[in-house]
Amino acid sequence: MYSQIRTSMLDGICAMPVQVEVDISMGMPVFDMVGYLSPEVREAKERVRTALHNCGILLPAKRITVNLSPANIRKTGTGFDLPIAVALLVAMGLVKPEKCADTIFSGELNLSGQLLPVRGILPMVSDGVKEGIHKFVVPADNLMESRLVQGADVCGFSALESVIGYLQDGGYKEPAYAGRRQNRSHGMPDFSEVNGQQFLKRAAEIAASGMHNMLMVGPPGAGKTMISERMATILPPLTKKEQLEVSKIYSVCGLLADSRTLLQERPFRSPHHTISSSALIGGGSVPRPGEVTLSHHGVLFLDEFPEFSRTALEVLRQPLEDGYVTISRVQASLTFPANFIMCTAQNPCPCGYLGDKKRECSCKQFEIERYHRKLSGPLLDRIDLQVYVPRLEYADLQSREAGESSAVIRERVIKARQLQLLRLQGTNLYCNAQMGRRELNKHCQMEAAAEKLLAKFFTALGLSARSHDRIIKVARTIADLDGSDIITAAHLAEAVQLRTSLNS
């Protein structure tokens, strides 16, 4: 007898529909699985056979063939166990085919027949609903995550026996345990906790308003890390679309800490400088998202910037320029979103005290030059704001006067973003940093004094064409914070200062 069951597999951060076909016919007893399968999918044969046996169901002594279609795409993951088991039950006549019609099954089985959670259930359900499928059967631990998608009718089970009972008599009992809840007892960091460094706070506000990348250079303990850790708190709240998009990424990576709700806060990722290029940008034999994708719609903080490997840093060029990253392998070529603010921090020299007024630098000249050569010119050219951070004075540290809170700064950032959304409506862009040459010519009108000032700086500083455009984008963001329709000389001067303060 022949049967067919719907399921899906991850393809990057999206889901691809897969058909599980089972045919049981006369012949020598054999259990074959075909369809371009990875090792973990091939092992499903033994997991399913043993799980069915422990549920009191023996496979017939006939020729059993399981095909996962389409056969030209490599199947990976452990979520095929449950659909294979259900397809076998339908082919054996133990479950009626109409009970499984227009339903997507996904789940891993252990040998006792218990259902184990799988990664990426959120994009599987979300993309299934987009394709017109609304019924899903998933492991109990994936139930609450699955129900985050509107329009999905999801049933969760903890054991294969319960699935069989549901398909045979239609009875369903909600599982007692259905997901994880994140502990949110700790408070979020706030800008009011940062003393002094008004220039750096202003730079952070501009970066957040226009999604501009920022490099901070200064001695140890100046507040670079403290500011970066609070960047996400002044970004606008995630929209519903962005919440679903970021939650799908974290679901694929198994990092959705609270399966009862979509991610509400913008991501903040801070990988160690020993990270490999594959972990940073994404990769593997079957490409998986890296830190740049986990930072999507949020902040990627790279502390000790020059200490990262040259290979890891150079692969950042594409996502910084395009907002996405393409990973090509023999088995697959996948594109992951990577639109984030990159905040980087470094010392001015290996010892950290070059140019410091209180402590003398102990580095040799060749050590300083070697330290700075770790960062290539093309990479630095893609960083809009390059700010020197001086050491904090004692009076600033002892000040009890609270600074502006993140909530107050966020209000100004939201107003600036709303102006950008209104200006860029009708396009796929939503912030100034994403503008290309066409948008610059259309939306970045400058007064005559500003144009003369830009021409002067372009020649004097030997700026590249990319630097020229990025200065204009930053100036446009500063004008938005001021509520100005036109870029003035003051706006442009501040934008140039924020990009060239390291050379002053």
Please, could you describe this protein's structure?
A hairpin with a 4-residue loop joins strand 15 and strand 16. The longest helix is centred in the last third of the chain and has 18 residues, at 406-423. The strands form six sheets. The chain has a five-stranded parallel sheet with strand order 11-14-17-10-18. It has a four-stranded mixed sheet with strand order 1-2-4-3. A three-stranded parallel sheet has the order 5-8-9, sandwiched between helices. It contains 21 helices and 18 strands. The protein has 504 residues and is α/β, with parallel strands linked by helices. Helix 17 crosses helix 20 (465-482) and helix 19 (448-461) runs parallel beside helix 21 (489-500). The chain has helices at residues 39-42, 44-54, 81-91, 121-130, 143-146, 160-169, 198-210, 224-229, 240-252, 277-281, 291-294, 310-314, 317-322, 365-373, 377-380, 394-398, 406-423, 437-443, 448-461, 465-482, 489-500, and strands at residues 2-11, 14-25, 30-34, 63-69, 103-105, 108-109, 115-116, 135-139, 153-157, 214-217, 268-269, 282-283, 288-289, 299-302, 324-328, 333-337, 341-346, 385-388.
